[in-house]
Amino acid sequence: MKEKNWLTWLTVLALVVGFAAMGASVWLSAQAAKQTQRNSQLAGQLYQASRTSSNEASSVKKRLDKLASDNSSLKKKNSLLAKENKALKQANQELPAASASAGLNVWKTEEKSGKLQLEIDNQTGQAVSDLLVLAVAASGRVTLNSLPGYFPVGGAKPRYFYRKKVAIGETEGSLTGPYAGSDLVCLFADASGVYWFKGNRGQIEKIGSQAHFKKLLRQISLNKLEESPLPVKKTKTENKKASKKTTKKAENQSSKKEAE
Question: Disulfide-capable partner of 197 in 9, 124, 144, 191 (CB 3.0 to 4.6 Å)?
Answer without folding.
Answer: 144
